[in-house]
Amino acid sequence: MRRTSWAIVAFAALGMSWMAGSVQPAAADPYDYPWCIQGRDEGYPGYCGYQTYEQCQASASGRDAYCGINPRVAFSQQRTAPRAPR
Predict the structure, then answer these.
(1) pLDDT tens across 19-77, in order?
(2) What is the 3-state secondary structure (H, E, C) of the chain?
(3) Which residues touch 38 (CB under 8 Å, ≥6 apart)?
């Protein structure tokens, strides 16, 4: 009985460590670039993996798609320098 209990605990710990290791951090997301290709096939906000408008336009060329600004970039809070203490 004791061996079975240890086997169950070991199996559960192994499964939990495997699941914890498979979580991707949000920083690895390609959606932090400022330009998104949008259209019928891509939806909204589309694929936001373009650093420049020209890159996005080149990808949209010949497709039923257009380029728009990434809403995560457009509506993000502006970073300001911290105030100096008085």
Answers:
(1) 555 544 444 455 579 999 999 888 888 999 999 999 999 999 999 999 999 998 888 76
(2) CHHHHHHHHHHHHHHHHHHHHCCCCHHHCHHHCCEEEEECCCEEEEEEEECCHHHHHHHHCCCCEEEEECHHHHCCCCCCCCCCCC
(3) 44, 45, 46, 65, 66, 67, 68
Please name the residue that has the structure tokens 């498979």. 22
Does the pTM surpass 0.85? The reply is no
State both tokens at 49.
Answer: 């993996």
Name the residue with tokens 């390609």: 30
Q: Any idea which residue has 């373009």 for tokens?
A: 50
Structure tokens at 78: 């502006």
